[in-house]
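User: Could you write out the 3D structure of this protein bound to cytidine-5'-monophosphate? I've included everything you need below.
Assistant: Certainly. Input first, then the structure.
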Amino acid sequence: MIYTEPACAKLNLSLDILGKRADGYHDLRMVMASIDLADEVTVSFVSEPGIQVSADLPYLPRGGGNIAAKAAERFFQETGLPPAGLSIHIRKRVPVCAGMAGGSSDGAAVLRVLRRALAPEMTEERLEEIGALVGSDVPYCVRGGTALAEGRGERLTDLPALPPCWLAVCKPPCSISTPELFSLVRLKKLRCHPDTAGMIAALERGDLEGVARRMYNVFEDVLPRRYVQVFEIKSALLGLGAISASMTGSGPTVFGLFRDREPAEQAAEVLRGQFGSGVLCRAVGSGRHSFS
Ligand code: C5P
């Protein structure tokens, strides 16, 4: 049996940090949207035991070090099903270490495939619970679409889809360690917080400008100076006609939100020239878990 599953990237329309927890994690409040930039994850059931992972990018971890393999191991541990031999291949399209949950989304794609193949009676909630044992962003990636993520990121509430728009997405060459960035956050020193309730109300009204006005990621406040490109890309996007621009997750990827396709496409092209990366994307709904 061979299954091919898309693993969509996510963007943070907002990211707020509410507090530090006793378990070392942070309580978050984030509005996330899945986009049509996706890895292609192929899961083959094979006769040899064990879980093999390969990818078209040579530097991705193989075998047990890859989150796709960790997700499969967790699935078998949690369900008690006999571990199947799996060969997982990832065609990487989502930038790595980019704040777009590329790795988490690969893990979530593996979980969806294993449920479909081996445990079709399992609820979505149970699959998300297993995802939470793999990584904080995995439950959201299991579900996809536009959602509010709270707690570590595992408490999810579906939200109305982002109104029709175009996104220009740019991952500069620098990369940021997520734990390092969290360690730089001093909660009392954060200068502002996103208006999450206002953003949810704007989504409910289908008000794109209202969403755009409230896009904000508190990590931008603590970025070390060496990540100046994040702000250069934001300025470039606004100069190129974006209604709004923000960093996603723990960065360094920045995206601009546009009402129309043409300026978004031009912006992606300009960013490709200036920063070596620029992709035109659209938001996708939670049902977009198959290739069309
Ligand atoms: O859960 P995950 O392994 O993806 O998290 C990676 C790191 O990000 C954690 O080790 C932690 O340092 C940080 N993190 C956090 N609070 C969260 C999510 C992640 O501090 N809610």
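The pocket of cytidine-5'-monophosphate is lined by residues 25-26, 28, 135-137, 152-153, 178-179, 182 (CB under 6 Å).
User: Perfect, thank you.
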